[in-house]
Amino acid sequence: MALFSQSRLHLTVDIGTALVSGMIWREYAGAFAKNKKPDILEVVRTPLTGNVSRSLVTALNVFFQKTKEALGGHDPATITIGLAAPYYRGETVWARASFAKPTPVSPAMAAKLFEEKETEERTSLGEGEELFGHDILAVFLNGYPVGKDPKGRIATQLDEAIRLSVWRSAFKKQLDRLLEEHFSHASIRITTFPVAYGELFHQIPHFTREATVIDIGGGVTECSFFEEGILEEVLTIPQGSDLWLARIAEHERIPRDEVISWIRENKRFDQLLAGYLAEWSALLRPVIAAKMLTQPARHFFLVGGGALLPQTNASFAALLQTFQFGSHADVHALSAETFRDRFGQWPPSLLSFLDISLLALWNIT
Predict the structure, then answer these.
(1) Distance from C-alpha of 200 to C-alpha of 137, rounded to nearest angstrom
(2) Residue 281 to residue 303: CA distance in whole angstroms
(3) The pLDDT of residue 365
(4) Is the N or C terminus of the chain more exposed, i.e. has fewer CB atoms within 10 Å?
């Protein structure tokens, strides 16, 4: 009993376009925290079938039921939920305050500017929309970055980069209802995949102040553009691994749940993948090319991968190498293999939201 009194259970949830997955993990506290990394107790997965908007609520209900059973009927202390497109839209906005003379800028002044900008942005939301995420990404004094806390430094100008995330009120109500029904006592945090990647990636080797993160999801591919280390914009294209797997099932006339086994055993997959990559490239290339005109990225980070196998990492990375619109750009396919010392024997698939969360828990820096 002493061990469990020194630990807490947590749940991290990945709501994608093809799958809802979650990781139950234990955090040690007190004397145990010094020698214990978080224990991953169980991973729960529930696929989405058919129309995403109609099947999501059903899948979430099944997922929460399975998770509750895995937790022995108890609530976790916290639940962190990461959303993929198209369940949200986000943008980075800027707020500025100018002072007539050099002024010590306190954290309270930065907070006030943030609140004023948040209030302003709320008034411009569309019908049926609500803010669910609003964070200060960076603070600048007289044009120079100072992290997120001005710490009373003297300046005549205060600028803040603020990330806003918006979702539909109807979806919020459905999710709130399910969380209240299954986990009424847990503390809830909602974030998005690009924000989660950004919070961690700027701390790992090779992540530069100008970078593009390409997240291959089940139904869409999200491109997150970072400038000066700040998440500036997220663009999506309507193709992902689930579409390709469904096409293989139809082309080979095999059940959807047998596709992965077929891929492992059949060399024709390389030919099919080449065709899918060509379509993906035709959609992705102009998106990146247009952005590179105004924001040349030094590095591309490939993450996600949906249900595709690890051996496809090289194919995606090789394709992205052809996107090098600048002579100094390069591609990093980030997988569990990249962090072997952290993941141990985990399959070397591209990093997912759950993997990123796990790395954050283990403080890779």
Answers:
(1) 13
(2) 16
(3) 38
(4) N
**51: which 2 tokens?**
């129309």
Place of tokens 């019908």: 127
- Token digits for 139? 């603070």
CB 225 within 8 A of CB 212: yes
Q: Give CA–CA dist 146/284, Å, rounded.
A: 34
Q: Most distant CA pair in the chain: distance in Å?
A: 73
150-161 pLDDT tens trace: 999 999 999 999
CA angle 261, 43, 77 (to 5 degrees): 165
Cβ atoms within 10 Å, residue 353: 28
Side-chain half-sphere exposure of 98, counting CA atoms within 13 A: 1
User: Which residues does 98 contact at the CB level (< 8 Å), separation at least 6?
Assistant: 156, 157, 158
For 13, 113, 136, 150, 190, the CA distances from 26, given in Å and listed in that order, are 15, 37, 29, 35, 20
Instruction: Tell which residue, 365, 287, 298, has the closest CA to residue 326.
Output: 298
Sign of the dihedral defined by the CA atoms of residues 240, 246, 249, 252, in that order: negative
Q: How far apart are CA 36 and CA 29, in angstroms?
A: 9
The CA-atom distances, in angstroms, between 122 and each of 44, 167, 257, 308 are 35, 12, 44, 39
Q: What is the pLDDT of residue 127?
A: 92
The pLDDT of residue 325 is 54
- What pLDDT is recorded for position 150? 92
Distance between CA atoms of residues 26 and 286, nearest Å:
44
